[in-house]
Task: inverse folding
């Protein structure tokens, strides 16, 4: 299956603008923070920022993995900023967010994969007077080299949702995520659900996978206890990214959504421009 060069109408999105968009952008910059919205060039940035929603990217903007689809810069990250947890909490408070998603680059250079930094950020938000009712979703890496210990640290803080993306179909892991591991990602979801917490995952499609590949992946994610899933169209975000092999139609996404519900998922968001933290608060509630 070759590269698809023509982008269909249902995948195109508008250039972000508006006062609320600018407000979020300015707050993030003023606090010296990063958002996955900007770093990963998310197509929903205009809609989310205009609603006052943002997904904060902690631990810098340089990732130690080399996934072939991702727009985030790869390389050697800088040391952690000890002020970042407080700055995130300050931004959440200033923006009056009632639901916040905290994610990170993958930090294989850190002994705990950055789990303690997640914990400090969660505590900073919860200890801010104006954020006591803010719901917190964490979108975490696999903590592959310290999985049990690091996951337990996150679990002990009891965030409202623990999200870990399966990302791509099983048969494409080696090609697209050479430093990732399919079973390791399933283990994250299994451990979260075993502790009685809400687990969520996300899948991108359009790399050349078959419908059977998608079905197998959804069944695997469901089998480990995850009940919330997002499914979206992969879009090449930079020149050197893995090529798009197929653009799924909105109707095909509806069919995949129906299948996910049919096997037992309780909340499914499947559409071309859906991303893992898109409408996260609405999906949770």
Result:
């Amino acid at each position: 299956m070759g590269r698809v060069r023509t982008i269909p109408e249902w995948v195109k999105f508008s250039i972000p603008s508006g006062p609320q968009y600018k407000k979020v952008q300015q707050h993030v910059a003023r606090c010296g923070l990063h958002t996955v919205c900007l770093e990963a060039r998310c197509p929903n940035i205009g809609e989310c920022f205009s609603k006052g929603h943002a997904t904060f990217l902690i631990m810098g903007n340089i990732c130690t993995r080399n996934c072939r689809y991702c727009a985030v810069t790869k390389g050697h990250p800088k040391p952690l900023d000890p002020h970042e947890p407080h700055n995130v909490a300050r931004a959440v408070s200033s923006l009056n967010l009632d639901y916040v998603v905290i994610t990170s680059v993958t930090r294989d250079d850190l002994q705990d994969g950055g789990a303690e930094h997640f914990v400090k950020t969660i505590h900073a938000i919860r200890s801010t007077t104006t954020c006591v009712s803010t719901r917190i979703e964490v979108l975490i890496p696999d903590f592959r080299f310290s999985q049990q210990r690091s996951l337990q640290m996150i679990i002990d803080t009891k965030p409202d949702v623990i999200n870990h993306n399966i990302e791509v179909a099983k048969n494409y892991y080696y090609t697209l995520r050479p430093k990732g591991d399919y079973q390791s990602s399933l283990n994250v979801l299994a451990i979260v659900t075993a502790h009685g917490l809400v687990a969520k995952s996300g899948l991108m499609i359009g790399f050349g996978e078959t419908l059977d590949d998608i079905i197998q992946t959804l069944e695997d994610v469901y089998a480990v206890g995850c009940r919330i899933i997002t499914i979206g169209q992969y879009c090449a975000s930079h020149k050197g990214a893995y090529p798009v092999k197929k653009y799924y139609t909105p109707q095909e996404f509806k069919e995949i959504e129906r299948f996910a519900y049919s096997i037992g998922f309780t909340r499914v968001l499947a559409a071309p421009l859906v991303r893992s933290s898109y409408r996260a608060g609405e999906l949770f509630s």
Remarks:
- The longest helix spans residues 182-194.
- The CA atoms of residues 121 and 163 lie 16 Å apart.
